[in-house]
Amino acid sequence: MDLQDKVILVTGGGTGVGRATALKLAAKGAKVAVNYSRSEQEAHEVVSEIEKRGGTGFAYQADVASKQEVDALAACIAGRYGTIDGLVNNASITAQIAMDNLEAATDEVWDSLFSVNVKGMFHCVQAVVPYMKKQKSGAIVNMGSVAGITGIGSSIPYAATKSAIHTMTRSLAIALAPDIRVNCISPGAVDTRWWAGHEEKMIRLAGNLPLQRISTPDDMAEAVIFQLTQASVTGQVFTIDNGQTLC
Length: 247
Fold this sequence. Notes:
The protein has eight helices and seven strands; from the N terminus they run E-H-E-H-E-H-E-H-E-H-H-E-H-H-E. The chain has helices at 16-27, 40-52, 67-81, 107-135, 147-150, 156-176, 199-206, 217-229; strands at 7-10, 31-36, 56-61, 86-89, 138-143, 180-187, 237-240. Strand 2 (31-36), helix 2 (40-52) and strand 3 (56-61) form a beta-alpha-beta unit. The model has no long low-confidence stretch (mean pLDDT 94).
């Protein structure tokens, strides 16, 4: 996929990996829809930065846990730009719960994380696929985590949602081939606001990193762009973790 004039939806696009991805996509000529749930100011700042650099984009509030709101988001994008060529399923939430504190992993925590991280991503796929099928092309990138591979992360429910995303990616890649490619990024430790105040825990969970560095949002954004643009890649979960899962 040549990104020039392609229409890409980035969920959770106001901060962190979503922000970095939105800016890089716009720099490559894409028209970027920056979705946000609560980070309104940040999302509009991303759009302002895109426009300042000569790009095209707009911000739209929608809770991905709500299928109705996601459908309205997709309809708005298509109404503005004519179609949807790509989806970066980045919106996620977490809960900082010690792995051995089973009582703190309440039904409310489980339900909220699965509603956003798994069902929310599926809602977004459902919303964009009709436009991609109509034009017989499209690419989707889901944001997973090494927590979904190792089982170790900010909480057990979070790790479980990310494992589900990895499996859902493979299922969707089969279901939507040959016209729509679906892949997944599985980051290790990334320096984002999620870990603000929990930096020591992040470094502890990351373990003995062979590359002796913590990834940046820009690292993940580059990987997202690779998966969006490489025509031969589908159904893959790319682990980008500075060697974290080797140890």
